[in-house]
Model the fold of this input.
Amino acid sequence: MTRIRPTALLIAVAAAFPAAASADSPKTYCVNNTDCVFKGGGEYEPSIQAALNDAAGHPGLDHVRITPGVYPDGPFTYIQNSNNPVDIAPTSPGKIILGLTAGSKSSYAVEVAGGGSTVSDITVSLPPKANNIIGLDLYGGVTAEHVTVNVADESTLITAIDITDGGTLRDAQVHARHSAGAIGIAAGANLGPVEISDARVDAPTGLRIGGSSAYTSTVRRLVTNGTDGILAYCGHTIVEDSLVVADTNGVVAKGCPGNSPSVEVRQSTVIGGGGGDYGAQATGGGADSASLTLSNSIVRGYKTALYRQAVSGAHVNLATSYSGYDPARVTDVSANGIGALVQDHQIAAAPDFVDATEGDFHLRPGSSLVDAGDPAGLSAGEAGTD
Done:
């Protein structure tokens, strides 16, 4: 008779009964979806907030999967503990529309906080007469992609997307053009850089960005349409391959003390409505400082294409290179200020857009601005979009 040694017996038992998952192993929480439970091995959840709460209470990365549909019972909140990110996405292709409960006093509709968390393929819809609310509130290093925020016309003082203390926003859309005082995207790089790409923003203010000078935020392939395009208050921001359509102010670097905004605009087009105030503007007063550089770009449709203002000791610089704008529409104001307005290889020729009235700002093949940029080519790290 063959004996089974204790060690072999233990191995045999372990094979028959696999060890339970570690407490830190990823879990999937399925909102109103039994297929996700039975086929995907997830846990059934009766509501979005219940799923978010359970994910927040479980260590490690978890997945919240939401059945496509309309969920008007927000706000929805996920605030992670240490090293406890969440991945929020649909269970299957289709629209997820998240909204606020009627009469809600919440300051946001959807809030996700904590580095490593991701949000994808959701739409946030704010109700009529909403006031002083954030649609999608992201902070602490969250990544969001394929997201849309719709703001009702009667809403006021809305921030559609707020991405703070670092994070990434890709393929976003904001519809808030007729919401008084609305900001499409507000970005803050206080604890880490912000990266924004492929965003289309239809709102009174397209992008308001600031943060610590220790970080460089990047904005690529942004399209804005509104009253003000890009307002930078502090920190270092690079804008590339973007289209800014703004009735009043195109790109503004507004000085702040001790943490001057440094804005670089490359390969971009800034368009006003014909009576707009300033295309590219750098201003500061007192202890403020600011810097704005414009390269291989176009500014048209403003009373003042370039505007530098340095008063009462402020240090303000505005520089252009290989950029097209009307040289007769340049203003330099210095009242006991420091800095300079520098224009290198300015191009005065009209751009000859394909169809400006219909919003097509591509250059016609015969335009004088085609291949009129810096012959040295792109600098290291610059996007290759033409």
